[in-house]
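Feature request, filed as a ticket because there's no other form

It would be nice if the structure record came with a short human-readable summary line next to the tokens. Right now we just get the raw output. Example of a typical job, pasted below so the devs can see what we mean:
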Amino acid sequence: MSRIGKQPIPVPSGVKVAVNAASRTVSIEGPKGKLQFVHRPEVKVAFDDASKAIVCTLSRPEYATEGNGRAYWGTTRSCLTGMVQGVTKGYERKLEIVGVGWSAKLQGKKLVLTVGYCDPIPLTVPDGVTVTVDNNVNVTVTGVDKQKVGAFASLIRSQRKPEPYNGKGVKYSDEVIQRKQGKAFGA
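Raw output as currently delivered:
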């Protein structure tokens, strides 16, 4: 059986959970925002008012042994846990731009990156995500949806990945770049 899937998800006070069994939709609303999730038909989700917890179970017992039922069970539970954390605390990814003359600017709903190409790169900030820029080189991406925050941070990083010789590029603030020595001349 799934060890992750059978654990109940505690719901803190101030968070509202609505489960619609017919459309398989779970809505979670908290102080930071509101999120919705449509789960797989192999998994059944219920909210227990007595223990203030979300409980995930398999809709039929044979899904535990055949197919991907156990995988969907654990994945559904992990997604719902991320949603509860998102509407209470939120998610944040920090990036650093390393390079002489390289910078980032916020112009309305666009993040404009100047990272060594002849033209600046404009990126549209998606709905539900907030971007702040400090000192033109520190970019912070925040929001309630873990997937949107991570995807936009990854998009920013992909514009100029850090290279191992000089360490220039866009990197996560907690990322460690393995440096290489380069060529040695003369023998």
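Something like this underneath would help us a lot:
Residues 91-172 form a domain with the Outer Surface Protein A; domain 3 fold (CATH 3.90.930.12).
DSSP finds two helices and 13 strands in the chain.
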